[in-house]
Amino acid sequence: MKPEGTRLIASNKKARHEYEILDTLEAGLALMGSEVKSLRDGKVSFKDGYVRFTSGEAVLVGVHIAPYAHAVHTGHEPERPRKLLLHRHQIDAWSAKIGQKGLTVVPLKMYWKAGRAKIEIGLAKGKKYHDKREDLKSRAIERDLARER
Fold first, then answer.
1. What is the CATH number of the domain that holds 110?
2. What is the mean pLDDT, run by run of 10 residues, along the chain of 149 residues?
3. Is residue 1 in a domain?
4. How many domains in the chain?
5. 87-124: buried (b, 16+ CB within 10 Å) or exposed (e) per residue?
């Protein structure tokens, strides 16, 4: 019996700080067996991850999935490009959007959904230094107001 609901594997907290997220999308991942085992242990890092659209495919690049410690065979390459499972119309629409100046696609979080690894990707626009400072300032004000209540 497959588990119901979703369970978070990892989230990319830095993405929301570095980028303004304009739109999100859920995608499946084409993984090897040792990568799935490693994800079950939560061994993933989004440090320099992004999504590249080439020849009609969406590919996740730069996401580090650590090798599984108990792998019988050689395992997998930790930062290999991984194909994202999306519909053709989604790939076409998002590749057209990133053709615009200053837009990119970054991974936001990875989770289990009905026993399958899913990744949430976001269409993002880079923030300027003063935008980041404004966000920090507004969060500090909200935190102070919450304390007063």
1. 2.40.280.10
2. 75 90 95 88 90 94 88 78 95 90 92 94 88 85 89
3. no
4. 1
5. eeeebeebbeebeeeebebbbbbbbbeeeebbbbbbbb
